[in-house]
Structures are given as C-alpha cells and as structure tokens.
Amino acid sequence: MKSKVLIIGAGLTGLLLAYRLKKSGIAAKVIEARNRIGGRIHTLQSKNETPIEMGATWLSTQHYELLMLLEELELPVFEQFMEGITLFEPLSTAPPQQIQLPTNQQPSYRIQGGTISIINRLAEFLTNEELILNEKVTHINYLKDHFEIDSESATHYVNKVISTIPPMLLMNSIQFNPLLPENVIDIANKTHTWMGDSIKFGISYKQPFWKENKYSGTVFSNVGPITELYDHSNAENTRFALKGFLQSGLNTYTKEQRKSKVLNQLQKLFGDKALEYLAYEEAVWKQEQNTSIHSEKFIFPHQNNGHNYYQNGFFDNNFFIAGSETATRHAGYMEGAIHSAQSIYQKLI
C-alpha cells in the first residue's frame, strides 16, 4: 500500500494535517487504531440524543487558530452557560457555599453539535482509502529512502511518516528500527499525556432542574468525587445534561461505584431531582489503551509539552512527532493540536 505521507492517528492533528495536504495535492493516508475517529475528541450521543463530551470540550478567544479553522469549516460556537448560583465545597464537614461568579470573566465556548463536528467535517474530505480505522501500527522500519510501516493487517511503504499519538504511547507501543535517539526516547517517556489522567462523566436529564432553581450547574469541590461540574445543555437548549470531572484516583473503582458516588454528591448539592436522570456516561482516559500507557513515574500536567526535541525531524528529516503535546503554543489543548498540524504541514510542503 503506497502513499507519499502516512499519518498515524485520526485525531484533530492527524485529520487536519491530512486535510491540508490533500488540498495541496500531496497524497496522504491516515491510519487509526480505534474503531472511531477523533482520538481525545469524543462526543457521545447519550439518551434522548443528548450530546455529551467525553474529551476535549471548551475553547476561548485566545485559541485563535482553532477559531479560524472553525470559521473556515463553517462551524459555529456558543457560549458556555454560567448564569446563576455556583456551588463550592471547601470541606466535607461544611455545607456548600453559594457563589455568584462575576459576569465580566472571560467566557468559554463550545462547538455547536458537539466537538466531534470538527472531526467529522475534516473526515468528509478523505476517502475510505485515505482514512483507515482498526489498524494499529506495530513497527516503523526506516530503510534510507523509504519507510516500511507494519500494522496488524498490512505493510505500508511511504516516504514520510508523522505520528500524532501521545509521545509516551508512541515510545511504548511501536517498535522502531533503527531506534530514535536516546534523549528523545527519554523525554517522550517523561511527557505528560493530555487527558491521560482525566475521568470525565456526563449525566443527562429530561429537564434542566438546576436552571429552574437558579443554579448555573457549576460546582467546584475539594470534597469529591466530583471536582468540577458544568451545565452541558446543547446550543439549542433542547437537550440537557451536567458534565464534569472526577478525582483521578477513582480509576480503580467500577463504573457502578463511580456512578453511585456521583449521584450521592449531586443529590447532596441539588436535591432529589438530581436522581431523576436519563443516562450516566463516563470516560476513564487512563484505561484507554490507545491514549495512555502505564507509568510508575509521576509526571506533572503539561510536563515536557512543547519540548524542543519535538520540533525536529528524524530519519533524515522524514519522520515527525506531532500532536497536542508537541506544540510550542497551547500544548495540551485543541489549539495545540491545530498548531502542531499547521507546523508539520509547513515543514512537509
């Protein structure tokens, strides 16, 4: 299977890079280990067709490359709902405090139709031969003038390769021949994986009972298991949900145990109406084998993101490490994923 450029990973960086290359007339192929596109952008259609983000969700006016891409793809955004009473739990022994957040804070935005909209729009430009799912790369072999890329079902012969998967995952899931430089391997194994520690959950409702009681749906808690919570209703305000983050240590619990703890906390915060839900959804990103890799080392959030090593080409400038973690600006966000794709595109053309 021959093409000029092979892109590993069908997340935001990989699909945007393929889209840019195709528009420039450069043959590229994207292969993805999962059975879905998007990577750490993952919008679930919950019960009653309520879209719930299990991955990347928000953007701001500082994310100008993302905003420009959304405008190019004709995808509108809407402001995150924050009006009303915000709850703060400082201690388990004290009742939650009611706070009115100032209205002049910088707003956050969401993409109408869910964050997956940007992924689907980019994928529309690729054929089934250019975007292949369920194909995990196992070996990258460089033979001086080309690469032989082995996956579980095929061998690809290409001139240039771009990996967009997290650097730590890259080093521990794919075998290289010859090996990458030792200093690059070392830094990659000490690079924080965006979303890798997160447990996200969403819970959908027939009615937004929190709004009806003048709550914003926003919660900040030192108690847990919920650490942050936000209104997650859709842009049209016809589908309603709450979405938030759980303490990372709960990855060892079962889904039912986490769900029970979430419902107990929501009942304590909002009353019995919180128990009248339609569906509970969650994503434990540490358990996603195509995102995270187990490590005994403690790695700080964003550690080594945007490192200088990731700005280099390898194997005679024919192999590049891309993705949100490698970006020199806004690493570890959607904006970083886009910046990385734009940077690699400029190098390739």
How does this model look, in words?
The structure is a single chain. The protein is α/β, with parallel strands linked by helices. The protein folds into two domains: 1-40 and 116-194 and 289-349, FAD/NAD(P)-binding domain; 42-114 and 197-287, Polyamine Oxidase, Chain A, domain 2, CATH 3.90.660.10. It contains eight helices and 20 strands. The chain has helices at 12-23, 64-72, 116-123, 167-173, 182-188, 209-212, 255-270, 334-348; strands spanning 2-8, 28-31, 43-46, 50-53, 77-79, 85-89, 97-100, 109-111, 131-132, 137-142, 147-151, 155-163, 175-177, 199-205, 215-221, 226-231, 240-246, 277-284, 313-314, 319-321. The strands form four sheets. Strands 1, 2, 9, 10, 11, 12, 13, 19 and 20 form a nine-stranded mixed sheet that branches. α1 runs parallel beside α3 (116-123) and α1 (12-23) runs parallel beside α8. The model has no long low-confidence stretch (mean pLDDT 95).
Identify the CATH homologous superfamily of the largest domain: FAD/NAD(P)-binding domain
Sheet-strand content, in percent, reads 25-35%
Sheet with the most strands, sense and barrel status: 9 strands, mixed
The number of helical elements comes to 8
Shape, per Cα inertia axes: elongated
Q: What's the architecture of the largest domain in CATH terms?
A: 3-Layer(bba) Sandwich
- Parts with pLDDT < 50 across at least 5 consecutive residues: none
The helical percent reads 10-25%
- Class of secondary structure makeup: alpha/beta
Question: Between the first and last Cα atoms, what is the distance in angstroms?
Answer: 22 Å
What is the oligomer described by this structure? single chain
- What would the CATH topology of the largest domain be? FAD/NAD(P)-binding domain
Radius of gyration over C-alpha positions, nearest whole angstrom: 21 Å
SSE order in H/E notation?
EHEEEHEEEEHEEEEHEHEHEEEHEEEH
CATH class of the largest domain: Alpha Beta
Our count of domains comes out at 2
Q: Indicate the mean pLDDT.
A: 95
Count of extended strands: 20
